[in-house]
Amino acid sequence: MPETAPENLLELAGVHTHIGNYHILHGVDLAVPRGELTMLLGRNGAGKTTALRTIMGLWHASAGTIRFDEHQVERWQTPNIARLGIAYVPESMGIFAGLSVQENLALAARSGPLDEARLDWIFRFFPALKKFWYLPAGVLSGGQKQMLAISRAIVEPRKLLLIDEPTKGLAPSIINNLIEAFNELKKTDTTILLVEQNFHAARSLGDSVAVMDSGRIVHSGRMAELAADEDMQKKLLGLSLDLHQ
After folding, report:
1. Torsional sign, CA 218, 224, 227, 230
2. Which residues are registered as beta bridge partners of 160?
3. Gap between the Cα atoms of 191 and 209, Å rounded
4. What is the rounded distance in angstroms from the CA atom of residue 213 to the CA atom of residue 28?
5. Residue numbers in the chain where pLDDT is lower than 70
6. Residue 239: per-residue pLDDT
7. Which long-range contacts (CB under 8 A, 24 or more apart) does 104-107 make?
8. Taking the CB of residue 211, how many other CB atoms lie within 10 A of it?
9. pLDDT of the residue at 244
10. Contact assessment for residue 197 and residue 229, using Cβ atoms and an 8 Å cutoff
């Protein structure tokens, strides 16, 4: 029997986004299957970050619909979208440099005190956070700050994580830690939409994939199919995944 397609947790239909006089998204159609990790790929300037920020309500769609679960959210404000169980990790990380690691995580735990079991789970992947628990986040290395940013997003269970280029500028050993952490998250009830330029990470993590170009989705399908098709990689991305380990 054919495999049943997963239900989509997030769907964008015909989404346009204008930022000032600039028309960035041009009718984006995007489906994020529930319980999967979807890679959002594309060249620099393709509109990937704008798509994440539009989903999160940081920029509002000028046309089209955004549906999360049973809610249509394209006109909602960011705090209300977050309360549905969506967390966003921007490329800039968004941590509070003057606060300690502990305080950064405590601020992200909206439902109450930090859960010790959840923290122990996070420390398995990011032991440096435990080591620097009481230090200001501003003194952490770039990789450690990225670990903290992701930990803030997962310090409580979320339905959907939107993560923008988490491996950018990180050492291979740190990237491998992040891959392990995301693979563990995939085993939970968390759906992930991940923008990434590291194609080793993309191939290792992605269940499904969407490719953006000039503010549109130009390809969607299974990540394994794209990873196995070098001609398609070159056509859609201008490169081969095998050249970017």
Report:
1. negative
2. 86, 191
3. 13
4. 10
5. 1-6, 239-245
6. 61
7. 104/137, 104/148, 104/152, 105/129, 105/148, 105/151, 105/152, 105/155, 107/152
8. 23
9. 44
10. no
- Give the tokens for residue 239: 């490169």
Q: pLDDT of 131-176, one tens digit each?
A: 999 999 999 988 889 889 999 998 988 999 999 998 887 888 888 8
Torsion sign across C-alpha atoms 89, 92, 93, 99: negative
- What SS3 class is residue 145? helix
Amino acid residing at 43: R
Burial of residue 136 (number of CB atoms within 10 Å: 0-12, 13-18, 19+): middle
- The full DSSP string for 171-199 is -HHHHHHHHHHHHHHHTTT-EEEEE-S-H
Q: Please name the residues in contact with 202: beta carbons below 8 A apart, sequence gap of 6 or more.
A: 39, 41, 194, 196, 209, 223, 227, 241
